[in-house]
């Protein structure tokens, strides 16, 4: 599922995100959503979230499971 729409993302969902430092390479980091940081309903580069694992922040590229 696409990570560009806020309503698709739920707290606790497993997602793949791209961290700011990994944007040039596109390397993905997998984890579970702790907080949704983007307020707008959509974002062209992905909704920004914080992961439970290490409080990492990045934009959702793929939603794996709700």
* Portion in helices: under 10%
Q: How many H/I helices? A: 0
Oligomer: single chain
Give the end-to-end Cα distance, rounded to a whole number of Å. Answer: 10 Å
Arithmetic mean pLDDT: 95
Can you describe this structure in just a few lines?
This protein has strands at 14-19, 28-36, 48-51, 57-65. With 66 residues, it is mainly beta. The model has no long low-confidence stretch (mean pLDDT 95).
Can you walk me through this structure?
With 66 residues, the protein is mostly beta strands. It has strands at residues 14-19, 28-36, 48-51, 57-65. A four-stranded antiparallel β-barrel has the order 1-2-3-4. Strand 3 (48-51) and strand 4 (57-65) form a beta hairpin. It is globular and about 25 Å long. The mean pLDDT is 95.
Q: How does the SSE layout of this entry go?
A:
Blueprint: E1 14-19, E2 28-36, E3 48-51, E4 57-65
Antiparallel strand pairs: 1-2, 1-4, 2-3, 3-4
Descriptive key words:
66 residues; mainly beta; four-stranded antiparallel barrel; 42% strand; globular
